[in-house]
Each structure stands twice: as structure tokens, then as C-alpha cells.
Amino acid sequence: MAVAAAAFLEVDRYARFPRHLSLCTKAFPLPRPPPPVLRFRLLLVRPSRRLSAAFLPIGGSAAPKADRHDEDALEGVEATVSEQQGSQLRKRVVFGLGIGLGAGGVVAAGGWVFTGAVAAAVFAAAREYFELVRSRGIAAGMTPPPRYVSRVCSVICALMPMVTLYFGNIDVSVTSSAFIVAMALVLQRGNPRFAQLSSAVFGLFYCGYLPCFWVKLRCGLAVPALNTKLGHVWPVVLGGQTHWTVGLIATLISISSIIAADTFAFIGGKAFGRTPLTSISPKKTLEGAFAGLTGCILTAMLLSKILCWPTTLLSASGFGVLNFTGSLFGDLIESMIKRDAGVKDSGSLIPGHGGILDRVDSYVFTGALCYSFVKIVLPLFGV
Fold first, then answer.
1. Lowest-confidence pick of 132-141, 169-178, 309-318
2. Which residues cross the membrane (predicted)?
3. For 207, phi and psi rounded to 5 degrees?
């Protein structure tokens, strides 16, 4: 039996004449079965859209067992990812509601309370901006400003809203600050670079000068909105009817419209998003942008009817379009900075939301646009 097991059967299938079958008693080692071939399979876990890899053997009796093991592993990965996403969503909702309620109270208070909150947000955003400038992605192609210049610029940006509240005009202060920063960079030791000057001056403009228009919008437009019905029932101890100014209503409508634009854009993009909007932010879609524009206009028109300002639906819809445009391009500009820096978030100050700059990027340019619309455009139409 051992000899027969080691023998091989020799058959000539294509011979012209038949040949007898013969068993060769010469020992011949049987070939070893080839090792199981491993193939690399990529499995897409849909809840987080991450790729997970698994090595699975092809053929043999071990394949079903490996498949079962891989399925169990994938189920564990999906459960872990689902838990992480649920925890992240809860953090975003809780902190988002907290920020929204706090921002509403700050806007309603106005005055130095609103200005102090803007100054604190500006200081944190400026620190994050200069950290992005110093990150490896951006610093690899340019020379960032020295740390002492970055810190001085952050302090100057935080002081700008205070100067705007008490003096009204910020242009001279911004120009003087830019000149001082430029002198400090030029007179530094070593080899001054233009990239240092441009990034520092843009930081003063982006993080300091532009947010000051929110102070001018909320606190500078102190004309009472006499047609607003809420003003008649507002408590006297909180300012009475004179508390409801054009600046307060314009700020409330603007902030609410931006929140609606972000919410509608997120929902519309998730449900109908197919066409990419721009390569700067791959997650944004044309369908989501259209949904955000629609939500922004509808919110502005609804609040204008409730608060009786602006007095026409056409001006309210134009105000909504302006808010959406400023919020969209503010978000894209911050995404461009983060993309060059090679980071996902500008910071980690707010759990579930990233940094301050990630939350206020939609408001940076919007304040200046809204103030110009209320101060210049609406008077041309008698509003």
C-alpha cells in the first residue's frame, strides 16, 4: 500500500497506438499543496466611510472560517464607529445648543457685554490663525512671523472691537497697528521676508478688522425699530422699547440666517448632494449650497415679518442672499487656510466642533457686508 501510494500513473493520451497502463514502483514524492493564496480585500464601512482591510485565504476549508471571523471583526468595527459617531454627535448638539443660547443672550445684551464676547472670540481666533500659519504645511513654503509678533497681533486684534465700541472709527487704529507690525518685522534680526509681513497684516485684517463690523452693526446702529411689536412688551428694566434697535434686529436676523444656511446646506447636501461645489472643500456640493441659500432667504423673510424690519420682502430676501454669500465664502477661505496647513480643524477648544475659527468662519466677512447693506444700500431704497 505504501508503494502504491507513492506510485504515479503514467498515461499517454495522444499516442497513435494504445499502450498498456503500468504502475511504476519507483518512489515519487507527492507535491505539497500550495499555501493558501492571500488576497487583499477592501471593505467599505458605510457609517464612517473609512476603508478597512482584511486578508482572506482563497480556497481550502479554512475560507469559510476566515470569512466568519472577518465578518465578526467588521461588525465590531461598525459598532465601534457607530458609538464614536453617536458620541461625537451628542457633543456637537450639546455644545452647539450651549453656544447658541449664550450667543443669543450676548446679542440681546449688547454694549460692552457683546463687545467683550467678540473681543474674546477674536483673540482665540487670532491665536489659532497664527498657529495655522506656523504649521508644517504652510511654513514649508514660506517664513512665518516670529512668535512675539504673532502674540502682539493677537492682542491688537482683541483690542480692536473695544476701540470700535468707544471711538466708533477703527481705520486709524488698524493702519497704525499694521505700520507698527511692519516696522517690527523689518527691523528684526536676520533676513526679513515678505511672507512674514503679508501673513501678519492679513491676520490683522482677517481676525481683527473684519469682526469689528459686528460691533458697528449691533452697537452702532442705535436707531429704535419703532414698528417692532416685541418692543412694546419688552420689560422696562431691560431697556424697554428703545432696546430694540435696528442694529439688534439686523444682528439677530443675520446670525439666524447664517445658522439656517449651514443647517439647510448640511441636510440638503446629505440628502441630494451629487455635484461638488469646489475643490477647496470636497464635502460641499452644489445641491447643498442651493438648499442653504433657500433656507437663508426664507429665514430672513420670516424674521422680517415677525420683527417688522426690513419693511419689504424684497429687501429681506436681498439681506438673506448677502448673508449666505458672506457665510459661504468665509467658510471656503478658512477651509483654504486649513487645507494648506494640512489640518482638519483649526483647534480643539470646543469639543465636537474644533476651534473658534471653525465656528466663526462664516461670520468673519458677513458682518462687514451686512453693515454696508443696512448703512448704504437700504437708505437708497427708502428703507
1. 132-141
2. 93-126, 166-187, 194-217, 244-267, 288-307
3. -95, -20
Q: What is the pLDDT of residues 185-207, one digit of tens each?
A: 988 887 888 889 999 999 999 99
**Would you place residue 71 in the very low, low, confident or very high pLDDT band (cuts 50, 70, 90)?**
low
153 vs 125, 157, 199, 251, 296, CA distance in Å? Answer: 11, 6, 11, 27, 34
Nearest CA-CA partner of 154 in 127, 136, 129, 177:
127
> What grid cell was written down for 36?
493558501
Separation CA 208–CA 185 (nearest Å): 19
Cell of 128: 489659532
Find the mean pLDDT for residues 324-347: 93
Q: Using CA atoms, how far apart are residues 150 and 134, in angstroms rounded to an integer?
A: 10
As a whole number of angstroms, the distance between CA 43 and CA 55 comes to 11
For residue 350, the cross-strand partners are: 354
Residue 129, CA atoms < 13 Å, CB-side half-sphere = 31
DSSP lists the bridge partners of residue 276 as 285
Distance CA 166, CA 296 (A): 32
Q: Which of 147, 129, 281, 134 is nearest to 209 (CA)?
A: 129
| Residue 277 pLDDT greater than 80, yes or no | yes
pLDDT digits 0-9 by tens, 299-330: 999 999 999 999 899 999 999 999 999 999 99
CA 6/CA 316 separation, integer angstroms: 93
Per DSSP, what are the bridge partners of residue 55? 40
Report d(CA 105, CA 272) in Å as an integer: 35
Whether the CB-CB separation of 43 and 67 falls below 8 Å is answered with no
**pLDDT of 78:** 61
Q: What is the spatial distance between Cα 171 and Cα 182, in angstroms, rounded to a whole number?
A: 17
Residue 194: burial class (beta carbons within 10 Å; 0-12, 13-18, 19+) = exposed
Q: What is the pLDDT of residue 51?
A: 42
Cell 492679513 belongs to which residue? 202
Q: Does residue 2 surpass a pLDDT of 90?
A: no
